[in-house]
Amino acid sequence: MDNVSYQRFPTVRIRDIKDDVLKFELRDTDASIANALRRIMIAEVPTLAIDLVEIESNSSVLNDEFLAHRLGLIPIVSDRAMEMRLSRDCDACDGDGRCEYCSIEFHLSVKCTGDQTLDVTSLDLVSSDPSIIPVDAAGRAADMGGFESNDTRGILIVKLRKGQELKLRAIARKGIGKDHAKWSPAATVTFQYEPEIHINEALMETLTLEEKQEWIDSSPTKVFELDPVSQQVVVVDPEAYTYDEEVLKKAEAMGKPGLVEIYSKEDSFIFTVESTGAIKASQMFLNAIEILKSKLDAVRLSFDTEEADDQFGELGAHMRGGGI
Amino acid sequence: MGVSKADEVDDGDNIVSSHKEGLEAPVKTAVDKFQLLPSFLKVRGLVKQHIDSFNYFINCEIKKIIHAQGNEKVTSDVDANFYLKYLDIFVGEPCVEQDYIYEPITPQQCRLRDMTYSAPISVDVEYTRGKEVVVRKGKDGKQEGSINIGRMPIMLRSSRCILAGKNEAQLAKVGECPLDPGGYFVVKGTEKVILIQEQLSKNRIIITTDSSGSVAASVTSSTHERKSKTNMVVKHERIYLRHNTFGDDIPIVVVMRAMGMESDQEIVQMVGRDPKYAGILNPSLQECAALKIYTSHQALEYLGSKVRSRNMFTKQKRTKVDEARDILATVVLAHVPVHQFDFRAKCIYLAVIIRKMLEAMLNREAVDDMDYVGNKRLELAGQLLSLLFEDLFKRMNAELKKSMDATLSKANRSTQFDIIKLIRPDTLTNGLEHAISSGNWAVKRFKMDRKGVTQVVSRLSFIAALGHMTRISSQFEKTRKVSGPRALQPSQWGMLCPCDTPEGEACGLVKNLSLMTHVTTDEEEAPLIELCTTLGVEDLSLLSGEELHSPKTYLVFFNGTILGVHRRPNRFAEVLRKLRRAGKIGEFVSVHVNPKHRNIQIASDGGRVCRPLVIADKGVSRVKEHHMKELKDGFRTFDDFLREGLVEYLDVNEENNSLIALYEGDATPDTTHIEIEPFTILGVCAGLIPYPHHNQSPRNTYQCAMGKQAMGNIAYNQLQRMDTLLYLLVYPQRPLLSTKSIELVGYDKLGAGQNATVAVMSYSGYDIEDAIVMNKSSLDRGFGRCIVIKKSVVPMKKYANRTADRIMAPELQSSAKGGVQVVARQQLQDHDGIAAVGEMIRPGDIYVNKQSPIDTRNNVNNPMALPDSAYKRTPQTYKGAAGETAVVDKVLLTSNDENHFVVKCLIRQTRRPEVGDKFSSRHGQKGVCGTIVQQEDFPFSERGICPDLIMNPHGFPSRMTVGKMIELLGGKAGLHNGKFHYGSAFGEPSGHADKVSTISATLVKHGFSYSGKDFIYSGITGSPLQAYIFMGPIYYQKLKHMVLDKMHARARGPRVVLTRQPTEGRSREGGLRLGEMERDCLIAYGASMMILERLMISSDQFQIQVCTKCGMIGYYHHKLKICLCSTCKSGDNIATMKLPYACKLLFQELQSMNIVPRLTLAEA
C-alpha cells in the first residue's frame, strides 16, 4: 500500500460564466471532493449580512424582530468579505459598527408622507462604506439592459402608509452560512454525475419509426431525438437525463432489453452554482477552493504528531501527497 | 401539427355555437353550477343561521312575547283600575351612554374596552295615571319606543349591528375584519358564541322501544305557556298514559273516556277498525271495563284520584273532577288546542298515537329512529334568547307589580303615582348579559337549567373561529354509553359534516353544520293552515272516527298537530310545492308525504335543517346554461334562483320524497332534484383538506381537530385586537393545493401554514414515530417562525372610601458614577411608570409601577391627596420563562363603561421552530420536529432542490393518507405550471379536483417523473441515493403545542407550606412525581433505599423527638438544649427520629380530633 499514489489531477472546464451563474465540469476526481466543494460553497464561504439592528422608531405594520429578520436576509455585496475579520475574532473593537475590519454600518430612515403606500426597499439602506451596499440584482440587470422599469428595483422590506415611519441603524458583519443561512452566498449549488449513454444501434434498428418515437417520448426529459434525415435515434442532450430509468423500463416493456445502456461516470461532475449576488458565482467557487485548502492545511499542520497519523491512518498518508 | 391547432380553434367556436343553440339544453357538467355556491354564501353567509335566528327574534319574536297573554298587561291587586299595557317593543342600535349622551359604538371598541355590545330595548306603553289613561309612544317612523326597559346584547352582523351591510372599506374603518363571519356576541369584552343546541323535535309523536323491548310513544309538547312530556307505554299488553301530573300510569281507554269517548265502538273506530288493531286494543278496553268506568264522569273521577297532589294553595275549592279535566285540557298533550273543553281533537290525536303504537307492535320497523336528523331540531341563539328574554320580562313585570302594589297600597301619597319611574332596566340588562357571559341558561318556567350554552369564540386561528360558529352540541349526556346518538346517520348527508367531530368523550355528540346547511326559523302558521283547507284538507271536526283511517285518505299533520285528511295526498303535496317554488308560501315550508304511515307532514317550525338543491323535471335540471351565465354576469343572485323556482330548500323529511341525483348525468326520469355540489356535504373545517375522499376517514376527523390549532393569521384586524393569547405565523402562505371550500371561506386570504418541500425518506434516525427532520437554513429563512402575544391586564381599582390605585413614575437611585439612574427591573418603563413599547422585558421586570392605598375601608378626608406613606407598592411583574426574549408589543390605557380604568399590555415573543415543536400536514399526520440538520447535509437534487423537511415513509402504510400523496403530486405540478391545483372533495368528475393522470402528465411535461419521485444525492457523501425519493410541496401547519411552553425540569425548588412537599405543576415550578406505579417498580426491584430517598429524604423529611415511654411527640428545648416530652414532663426517654413531615402533620391532626397516635419505637 505504501507506494500507491492516490494523487489525481482534477480538471475544470467552464461552460457558462455570468455574474450570478456558473456552470462547469469537474473531472478526474471523486464525489468527496465535489461534495466538499458544494458543502463549502453553501456553508463556509463568508459573506456580509446584517446581524445587529437598533431600531429607533418603527411605526410600520411589521414588528421589530420581523424587520430585523428581513433585513438580515438581504444579500450584501461582500467582495471584501474574505479579507475581513469575524467580529468575534476582532480584537480592535466590540463589533459596534465603527470598526472597519469587521463591521459596516447601515442607516435607514424613511417616512411616508404621501397618500400612496411607500415601499421601503434595500435601496433605502445607506451604507457607511460606498463599496458595501445591498445587492441590487434588478438594478444590475437594468444597467445591462435587462429590466426597464425602475419600480422593481431593490428588495422590499416593508410598506408604509401615510404617517408611518421607520428609522434604524443596522450593522453588517462577516459570517458563514453554517451559522445562519443569511450568510450563505449560494442560492443553488448542485452537481450531477455525467451520464454515459450507449445506444445499441443494431437493436434500435429493429424498431419501427413509430416505436422509436414512442421510445423517445417515454423519457420525461429531452435526451434522445429522432434524426429527421437518417431516421436514427441520436443522443442530443445526455445531461438532460435525470437517471429516471424510464427509457430502460420502456425498452424492457417493448421487449428489447439492452436497447440502451446508461452509466454514470463516477469521476465527472457537472456543477451548477448560482449566487445570491453577494459575491460572483465564480469568486464563490474560488473562495471555496481557498477555504478547502486552508482546511486541509489545518489538518496537515497537525500531521507531524504520531497521534494524527493514528487518527487519520491511510488518510494521513493520502494528505501528504500519496505516501512517503 | 398545425392541424391540431386549427382544431382547437374550431372547438372554441363549437362551444360558442353550442351556447347559442342550446339555451334550453341542460347544464352538462357540474362545473357550471358551482357559481351557485359563492352566490349562496354571499346572500346567506357562513353563519347565516345564527344571524337569521337572531334577526327573527329581534324583529318578530320579541313582539310576540310582549303581546302574549300574561305578558301584555301588568295589573294591580290593590287598584283594580290600574293597568300598564305594552303596545310595542323595539330593539335599537348599539350605543353607549357617555356623560348622559348616547353614542353609537363599534364591536371593536367593546372588545378593547371590556364592554358589552348591546342596544337599548324600548317599549311603547299605555297606562293609567290617576284617573287618566296615558299613551306613551316613541317618535313615529323611528324604531324607538318611549321607555327604556333594558339592554339587549347584539349579535355581530345581525340586522341591528352597525356592521350590517357595510363594505370592506367601511368595515376597515370601524376596525373590523371583512372575513369575520359575525354571529357571536361581545359581552364584557369577550366574544361569546351561543352554540347550536340539538334536541328532539317538539310536538311530534315519536315511537320508541323501552329497555324491555316493548313499544312506547312520547310527545314533548311545547307551547309558549307550557312545556310537558306525555308518554304512552305498553304494560301487560295494555296501553297506559304516563304523565308527570298523574302519580300512576292511567289506562288509555280511561283517558279516552274522560275526554268524552264513552262508547268503545267509537274508540275502536278512531284507532282503526281493522281486526289486527282491534285485537291488540282489546285488553286495554277490557281493563277499563274491569275498572267499571263507563262514563266520562267516572273516568274523570278516576283520574282525579290519581292526580299527584301538588301543594297548590290557589283555588282549593276546585273538585278533583274539575282538576282532572283541566289537566287533560291544558297539560296533557298541551300543544293540541282544546276550546271550551271540546276534547275531540285531542281524542283523535290520542287515537293516532295509539294506532301508531299498535302498528309498531305489529311491525317493529315502524318504530321511529330517535337519531334520525328529521326528528331533530336545532335551537339557535334567537330561540334560546327568546326563552331567556321572556323569562326575564316576566320577572321584570312581577317585580314591577310588586313595587307598584307596595306603592299603591300606601294610603296617602305625596305625588301622583307614575309607574314609569318604577321600571328598572337592570333586570333585563343584567339577566341577558350574565346568561351569555356565564353560559348558564336558567329558565324557571320551563325548569330549564343548562350549563355551557355559550363559549368564548376560539381565536386560535381563523378556521377555529369559523368552525366554532357552525358547532352543534347535543343534549345527550356525555357519560352515557350508547352508540346510537354518536353514530354517523345517513340522514346527515349534506346537512351535518361527516368528518368534523371531536375525538373522545364528545365524539359524535358535538357536530358541525355542512357548508350549505340552513336552519329554519318559525313561520306564521295561520295562513298556511287556511291554505291547506283551501287545497282540500277536510277538517277534523267534520270527520267521524271511521273516516279518519279510511284506506282512501291520508292524514294531514301541520307542525305536529292533525289538520284533517286529504283524499289526494300526492296532488296536494305537489300543489303546495308549486306554491312554495312560486314564492307564494315561505321557502322553508316542507311537505312530506309518508305512504307508510299514510300521512302528510307539513312543517313550518323553526330549527329544521335544510339545504338548497336544484329542481329537476323528469330528470332534467331546471338550471340552464343561460341562468348560470346571467349569474356570472351579475344579473342574477341566488335569491332569483329561489324565486323563479329553479332551486329550493329541502329539509330532511322532504328529502325522503325526492330522488336526488349527484350529477346531471346520473339523473333518470324519476329524478326530482340534483345536487349543487357534492363537496358541500363537508363542513368548514373538513373543506380545507385536499383530496379528503382519498383518505382514510378518521384522518379527516383528526385534521378537523388539528386545523383549529394551526397557527396563521386570525383576522385582518389581528394586530388591533387585544386577545389574551395570540399565535401568529410570520410568513403564512396560501396552500399550493387548494380546494373550492378554501376559497369560499377565505382560508386563502387568512391561511395557517406554509408550503414545505417534503422529501419522503428515512434520514438520521431522528425521524422515527412520526418525527420530522427539518432543514436549518429553511428555519433561518423564516419557515415555521411564529409570534406569540400574551396579554396581561392591570385593573386600576377604586375602593369604597373613594381612594384608588395609582401608577408612579419609575423609581430613581443614585448610580455608582454619581448620577441618578432608574432602579433595576424598572428600566423598561417610560416616564409614566408603564412599560415602553418596543422594550425588551425579562422575568421579574416591573411593567406597571402600581401602588395601592393601604387603607381601603375607612373614610379618608381627601382621597385625591393622600400622602405617599398611605400607599403600598403593588407592582406588576412579568413572569415568563427565563432566557427568552420578550418584547412589550402594545400598551392600551382605557376605561370601560363603568369608568373603571385598566392598563392592558401585550407582550410578544418571536419563536423559531425547535426540536419538539409540533407540525402537521392537512391529513391528520402530526409529528414533532425530531432534529434540525444543516442544509449542506440535506439531500439535494440535480436541479438544486433541497427539501425543507424530511418525513419518514412509515407514516403512510398504516395511515393510508393517499390524499397527502396526491397533494404532493398536485403541488409539485402546480409549482412548475405556475397555477394552483385543486383537490376539492369528490371533485374529479366535476373538475374541482385534478386527476392524478393529468397531474402526472404535467409533471412529465416539465421533465419530472410521473410518479413524483426524484433522483436525489446525499448531502453528506455526495453520492446518489439508492432509491428515488418522493419529493414535493405539502402544506404544513405549525400547531400551537410548542416545547417552550411545556418543558419543565426541577432539581430543587419551592415547597407547599402545609405539607412541606414539593409543589405540583409546571406553573409552580413543581417536582416530578414518583407515582404509585413507579413506587411499585422500586418495591418489586427491592431498591428500598431508593424509595426512602425519593419519598422522604428528597421530599419532606422532618426530624422529631419521640418519647419512647408514652409514644407521643416531644420537642427540643433550644435554650436548655434538651429534648422534652410534654406529656411525661421529662426528657429521659426521648429518641430522635426522621419521618415525612406529612406524617407528623397527620399525627397532629389526629390529636386535634381526640385520637392519640402513639409511636412504638424499636432498636434499629
TrEMBL record, chain A:
Family according to the record: Belongs to the archaeal Rpo3/eukaryotic RPB3 RNA polymerase subunit family.
InterPro entries in UniProt: DNA-dir_RNA_pol_30-40kDasu_CS, DNA-dir_RNA_pol_insert, DNA-dir_RNA_pol_RpoA/D/Rpb3, RBP11-like, RNAP_Rpo3/Rpb3/RPAC1, RNApol_insert_sf, Rpo3/RPB3_RNA_Pol_subunit
Keyword terms, alphabetized: Acetylation, DNA-directed RNA polymerase, Nucleus, Transcription
Gene for this chain: LOC112291047
GO CC terms of this entry: RNA polymerase II, core complex; RNA polymerase IV complex; RNA polymerase V complex
Stretches assigned to the DNA-directed RNA polymerase RpoA/D/Rpb3-type domain: 21-302
Compartments where located: Nucleus
Pfam families according to UniProt: RNA_pol_A_bac, RNA_pol_L
GO MF entries: DNA binding; DNA-directed RNA polymerase activity; protein dimerization activity
UniProt-listed PANTHER family: DNA-DIRECTED RNA POLYMERASE, DNA-DIRECTED RNA POLYMERASE II SUBUNIT RPB3
Protein name: DNA-directed RNA polymerase RpoA/D/Rpb3-type domain-containing protein
Organism the protein comes from: Physcomitrium patens (Spreading-leaved earth moss)
UniProt KW Nucleus keyword: yes
Annotated GO biological process: transcription by RNA polymerase II
From TrEMBL, chain B:
GO CC, alphabetical: RNA polymerase III complex
CDD domains the record matches: RNA_pol_B_RPB2
Pfam families from the UniProt entry: RNA_pol_Rpb2_1, RNA_pol_Rpb2_2, RNA_pol_Rpb2_3, RNA_pol_Rpb2_4, RNA_pol_Rpb2_5, RNA_pol_Rpb2_6, RNA_pol_Rpb2_7
Alphabetized Gene3D superfamilies for the sequence: 2.40.50.150, 3.90.1070.20, 3.90.1100.10, DNA-directed RNA polymerase, subunit 2, domain 6, RNA polymerase alpha subunit dimerisation domain, RNA polymerase Rpb2, domain 2
Enzyme Commission identifier(s): 2.7.7.6
Superkingdom, taxonomy of origin: Eukaryota
Residue span, RNA polymerase Rpb2 domain: 202-379, 455-519, 556-616, 638-670, 1070-1160
Reaction catalysis annotation: RNA(n) + a ribonucleoside 5'-triphosphate = RNA(n+1) + diphosphate
Compartments in which it is found: Nucleus
Function, in words: DNA-dependent RNA polymerase catalyzes the transcription of DNA into RNA using the four ribonucleoside triphosphates as substrates.
Subunit details: Component of the RNA polymerase III (Pol III) complex consisting of 17 subunits.
Family (UniProt): Belongs to the RNA polymerase beta chain family.
Protein name, entry field: DNA-directed RNA polymerase subunit beta
Organism whose genome encodes this protein: Physcomitrium patens (Spreading-leaved earth moss)
Organism lineage: Eukaryota, Viridiplantae, Streptophyta, Embryophyta, Bryophyta
Gene behind the chain: LOC112295187
